[in-house]
Amino acid sequence: MAKKDFSKYFKKPNMKESKKRSYLEVEKVDGTIDNKFLNLGKFKTYYLRTYGCQMNEHDTEIIAGILEQMKFKRTDKPEEADILLFNTCAIRANSENKVIGEIGRLSYLKKFNPDIIFGLCGCMSQESEIVDKILKTYTFIDLIFGTHNIHRLPILLSEAMFNKVRVIEVWSQEGEIVENLPKSRSSQKSAWVNIIYGCDKFCTYCIVPYTRGKERSRSKDDILFEIKKLKEDGFMEVTLLGQNVNAYGKDLNNNYTMANLLEDAAKIGIDRVRFTTSHPWDFDDEMVEIIGKYDNIMPHIHLPVQSGNNEILKIMGRSYTREMYIELFKKLKKAKPNINITTDIIVGYPNETTKQFLDTISLYEECKFDGAFSFIYSPREGTPAAKMNDNIPLEVKKERLYELHEVINKYSKASYEKEKDKIVDVLVIGPSNKNKNILAGYTGKNQLVLLPGSYDLIDNIVQVKIDKPRNTALLGIYIENKIEE
Ligand code: SAH
Ligand code: SF4
Ligand code: F3S
Fold it and tell me: Which of 26-30, 238-242, 341-345, 415-419 has the lowest mean pLDDT?
């Protein structure tokens, strides 16, 4: 029987609401799952696919944790699953198209088994335009929830399963900070740790402040407790997560900043501390100093610049100039000379002139980044930039992206080549995706290393001599006996 009616849970997102910022203090609540849901998934399986950034990857670990506590078992075969969930990303049109394509491709499963639950969550669920489209066109989708109410999954899922109704519950604005949700981590050595949710920067092209709500920090005690516990459980690496981690603590008004948190996290003594993403805007000198001071704060920073032209930076709402960015870049290199810095760049912002684009190229040449993600600007409904007229044809934007790629590749190759003959610490994460006889791992600088070796090395930090730098990875040899000085 087709599930046509809506349940008592029917709440669509509203972009105007999601733009609003409330100055009320954000409460903290306990997310422990109610006993009555604990056996709902017995003998059932779930398939969960993630798109987008690290925040989404970590949300997926939480969703998986919730489902596994309800006794669902994970499968990587969609055709075997009772529940199919898509944790989506809305950052660019092509991110959304990938999701729509994949859901469409798998919709045939519903014909064989009408009891399957198809669910959508993540940033696309927060967009009213998308939810309307799904309600109209993708009628086989039974469940939609958003980024703010993941903890409501047991209630919403049980409603969809037992009452055979379509359940749509998306909160336009953030709710409380939910602690103690279960997590099924994808690694037992390297962990994501949320420190701040949301984003208040409102860069004019970006959808995130609408899909993730206002900036709200977790309490320092909860974060540091989580890191200590991870260390006790044998984790070697933590990555502190937020859309803009440098804004950490500002909403708590207790004079405890990102620099303080980073220092306290490093002092716990876990082998590797990372953080992502940093906006150049809130990056203060104290933070630069702490990064330089602690060896277990890893020598890699992702510092998105977006453009090398001041006029474009201004209309993007990035609140820094090219000169300010370069100054910060140099301070970081000085404080931690072995640091690798990577970046994000958008080409073809509305009306970007050739000269403005060439400023981005010249900034790249000046900074010689170790790597970069580069994108063609994609208009996002509801953002200020989407309302601008744009006189730059797509063909020109594609040529610019191509030109930028050449420069990015030149410097990333040089960055890998610098590692030749060095002995580096590598956290081995598992067999390589492409060749199961080779191991893969990451250096402190976050460069991929491929090495021959026994599976016993997995989940250890080992020393590797780099003998062949390649364009996208370092090939190395495991050094068996560490030479102690
Ligand atoms: N919070 C991070 C970025 C998160 S989004 C920061 O500001 O540093 C990741 C990247 O996607 C951005 O850095 C930007 O380069 C890109 N991006 C965001 N919105 C985009 C859009 N509308 N079109 C193209 N690229 C976009
Ligand atoms: Fe988007 Fe800007 Fe916030 Fe980054 S800082 S998430 S680019 S609005
Ligand atoms: Fe995408 Fe949402 Fe992350 S839009 S990049 S999944 S915050």
Answer: 26-30
CA dihedral 192→194→196→197, nearest 10 degrees, is 100
CB of 89 within 6 A of ligand 1: the answer is no
Span from the CA of 206 to the centroid of ligand 2 (angstroms): 6
Ligand 3 centre to CA of 214 (Å) is: 14
**Is the shortest distance between the CB of 318 and ligand 2 below 6 Å?**
no
Q: Are 328 and 287 in contact (CB under 8 A)?
A: no
SS3 168: strand
Cα gap 130→91, rounded to integer Å: 13
Cβ of 206 closer than 6 Å to ligand 1, yes or no, is yes
Average pLDDT over every residue of 242-266: 96
What's the confidence (pLDDT) of residue 484?
46
Mean pLDDT of 177-201: 96
Confidence of residue 89 (pLDDT cuts 50, 70, 90): very high
How far is the C-alpha of 110 from the C-alpha of 116, rounded, in Å?
A: 6
- Whether residue 59 contacts residue 87, with contact meaning beta carbons closer than 8 Å, is answered with yes
Q: How far is the CA of 213 from the centre of ligand 2 (A)?
A: 12
CA 217 to ligand 3 centroid distance, Å: 18
> Do residues 348 and 397 touch, judged by C-beta distance below 8 A?
yes
Element (H, E) at 157: helix 153-163
Confidence of residue 2 (pLDDT cuts 50, 70, 90): very low
109 — phi, psi (to 5°)? -60, -30
DSSP 8-class letter at 32: P
| Residue 167: burial class (beta carbons within 10 Å; 0-12, 13-18, 19+) | buried
Residue 122 in this model has a pLDDT that exceeds 90: yes
- pLDDT tier for residue 4 given thresholds of 50, 70 and 90: low
Q: What is the mean pLDDT of residues 194-199?
A: 97
Whether 272 lines ligand 2, by a CB cut-off of 6 Å, is no
State which of 199, 246, 377 you would mutate to test the pocket of ligand 2, scoring each by most atoms of that ligand within 8 A of its C-beta.
Answer: 199
**Within 13 Å of residue 54, how many CA atoms lie on the same side as its CB?**
21
Ligand 1 close to Cβ of residue 383 (< 6 A): no
Please tell me whether residue 392 adopts helix, strand or coil conformation.
coil
